[in-house]
Every structure is written in structure tokens, then in C-alpha cells.
Specification:
With 337 residues, the chain is of the alpha/beta class. It has ten helices and 15 strands. Strands 1, 4, 9, 10, 11, 12, 13, 14 and 15 form a nine-stranded mixed sheet that branches. Helix 1 crosses helix 8 and helix 8 (276-289) runs antiparallel to helix 9.
Length: 337
Amino acid sequence: MSKKVVTLGEIMMRLSTPDYKRFVQTESFDVNYGGGEANVAAAICNYGLQSSFISKLPDNALGQAAINQLRRYGVDTQHVARGGKRLGLYFLEPGVSMRASQVIYDRADASITEVELSDFDFDKIFDGADWFHTSGITPALSDKAAALTLAALKAAKAKGLTTSLDLNYRKKLWTAEKARETLTQLCQYVDVCLGPDATLGFHPEDTDVDLSNLKQDDYKIVFKQLADKYGFKYIASTLRGSQSASDNSISAMIFDGTEIHHTKQYNVRIVDRVGAGDSFASGLIYGLVAGLNAAQAAEFGIAASALKHTIPGDMNHATVAEIETLIGGDGSGKIQR
């Protein structure tokens, strides 16, 4: 399939403690690379589509290492700008059982925070592309990154691409007020909204109930409000139940403007849950680009997310065949010979 998806965001070096050790006891870290939109780009290639990643990385060996990681999985990195001060880092202490995972960011002054619009030629970048995806994490990094995100969405819409935004609110990166102001502006240029929450200021029937506390049937009220205001074609969200840091249940829903489809629920034993939301996004995008209907695309996305929980690192390396097998009901994990 010759379809092409372009993503914009930050890729970071991830330093995680081995063997479920705590930060205070570890003497070494495992190195991975990842970031919301980079994870989506890698998965899209893994599903057999083309993807291109846009970012800005330092012109040094660490920036090159991040680029090499993406190239390894077939992602087009020719439009990554080089320059700025540094590669962003984040530290992960994986949780287990009743002990939650911990994340510490070290991404201040990362190269993407100093990005300029002149670093990119969007007319060239979007030539031949079908879909553009970004997230609410990128505009949270700096005012310049927010301006770039808005410019990219505008350019993608002008080129006739389908656009998607995973809101991905991160309270460690910006305030709810700043997020609402910025994301409200971005959503005007978005066709597919992922992960809506109270950040956008919508509540069921004008109550002050947070989306995380909604009953599933109440989501339709909020999704209809969002669709009416912004003109979203689709709104999708994952639902997670946390029995412990080791065992979760996950499902998803998608709203097509009229009806909500609820996917099947998967009970997952967690090896690494980082990137699970990005895996849902990548699977949903793949499904819609490949011509699946909204319900089928959501089923593909949540199955991809379920499998990601079994794979170490930020990126999902599950294949289309594995995802389709899980959708078909075979989650036995029996050895394949």
C-alpha cells in the first residue's frame, strides 16, 4: 500500500532501570528512543505503510542515534531539522505489582523547543502524503513548538490531508489553562481527535464531571459536543482499568458523529506500557487509511495497543498478522512453529 502518514513531534532518549530496580538502587540504565509521534511513525511503517517524521534534533551523535533508530524501522527522516542545544531525555522506573511506574523528564531546552517555521517546507513535506498526525505533547514544549504545530496542521489541511491530534495532556509540561487555550486553537484544523478529556472544557450535560469518571454511555454526550464545536469526523478514546502496575484491562471507543462503537476489552499482563496510547493511535490511523470502517479501525487500534504492552521499549513491533490474529480471538500466546 502506497499510503503515506506524516507525524510531527519530539523523539527522546529513554533511560530505564533494568529488572524493575528503583532509581535509587540502579547502577545502569537501558537505552531506548521514543516519543509519541515517533512511536506512531515507526508502527505505521511496521504495518506496511510509508511514514515520515518531522522534528528538530541536535547536530551531534545523540541526535544521529535517534535518527538511526527511526531509520532502522523504515521511517523517512529526511525532513528532520538539525540544530539546537540537546536531545531530550526521560528516565523511567518501571512499576510492578502495587508499585507504580515513575517518569522523570529532562527535556528542557531540547532542540525542538527552539524550532523555527523556516526549518521546514511543508509544501514539500506533505507532497504525496495522505495523513498528518501530531499530539498535544508537542505544543506543550514551548511557544515555538506550539506555533510549529499550528502551522503544520494548517498546511496539512490546505493540502487536503486528513489530520489527527492525540490530545495527550501532560500536567508536568503545562497548566490546564494553557493547554485549553492552545489545544482549542489547534482543534479547528483536526479531523480525528484522540483522547479527549476535560482539558477542552467539555462536560456531560453541563456538569463538572471529569471525563475520567464518566460512565461509558455518557461519553456520547461529550463527544457530540466536541464534534459539533470542532467538526471532528471521528473522536476516539481508550479506556483503562488498572488492577495493578502489572495487570490492566483496556478497551476503546470511537464516535463517528452519530453512534459510538465500543471495542472488545483485553486483559493485559504488562511488560512495558509506555507507548500503548501511541499504538492505539497508529492502529486506528492504519485502519482508517486502509479503508476499514470506524468500528473495525478502533478494533485494530486497541488490539495493537494490547500487544504493545508485551513489548519492551516505546515502539510497537507487532505485525498486522499478529494484530488480526488477536482480533480474531486467539490471545492464547501459544508458541508459533
